[in-house]
Amino acid sequence: MAKENMHQSLEVFYEKVNDCPLRDRQFNFFEFVYVISGTGNHAVNGNNFWYSAGDLFLITPNDCHAFDLENTCEFMVIRFGESYIREYQWKSIDHIECLLYYASHIPGSVLVNNDDRKMVDLVIQNLQQAIKNQSIYNEDLIRHFVNAIIVIAARNMAVIQPKFITLNADSRILQILDYIQEHISHPEFLKISVISEKFGLSPSYLGSYFRKQCNESIQQYISSYRIRLIEHRLRFSDKRVHEIGDEFGFADESHINKFFKRHKGLSLKAYRVGNK
């Protein structure tokens, strides 16, 4: 399978096409594709999603994707590497790299909030004008528009849902997931007794309710989410093991290593070496 590489931190371009110019390619960068007009199917890693105007797709490194166009389509394409994410200080959204990296977990368009869809549409319109205009400070303006789209997309992806969450999951389970993610660095807030009291449920009912909605136990979800973030720190930061342990509330370096090895089968150091 062909690899598509990117040699600068940011690329933004508009295209109007009748056929997908690149098929069955894997990228070494992130790519936002916004559908300005047209319809068709978007295939990502063997899964197919219908698309229409206003949809925003995020393809992460090593995803394989292609568009099957039903008619002439207009796209705005934004490509950026991991270095671009690190350049900007994302003060208001924690774990933004992790959110973007695991975006392929989210089916279809990343925009689930109608107000955000309208906002992105306006940003895209302004981005189109900025691309056409070659005046002074144009590059800075384009970066501001791109950063706005990244933040809006990340906001829509903020609740990383369990893989097997039921399609008709109710709003309370999403609130519980949001609470877990907000307090993932504070184990004292993630005790079953504390969560059940927060949401007005008995501890026994919370356990059965969570499993029914998500097809896994609440303890499994908390552990898997914590593992995801630890993997992110190992891959994208220079933090030492004891610093990562402190961040996620582990007593010491030995404690976090035992936790990680129990779930991943290798030490944090071995994982970091193998994923650099």
UniProtKB/TrEMBL annotation:
Q: Which Gene3D superfamilies match?
A: Homeodomain-like (1.10.10.60), Jelly Rolls (2.60.120.10)
User: SUPFAM superfamilies per the record?
Assistant: Homeodomain-like (SSF46689), Regulatory protein AraC (SSF51215)
Q: Which SMART domains match?
A: HTH_ARAC
| Keywords, in A-Z order | DNA-binding, Transcription, Transcription regulation
Where do the HTH araC/xylS-type domain residues begin and end?
174-274
**This protein's record includes keyword Lipid metabolism:** no
Q: Which PANTHER family match?
A: ARAC-FAMILY TRANSCRIPTIONAL REGULATOR (PTHR43280), HTH-TYPE TRANSCRIPTIONAL REGULATOR EXSA (PTHR43280:SF2)
| Protein name as catalogued | AraC family transcriptional regulator
Q: Which organism is it from?
A: Chryseobacterium pyrolae
Tell me the lineage of the source organism: Bacteria, Pseudomonadati, Bacteroidota, Flavobacteriia, Flavobacteriales
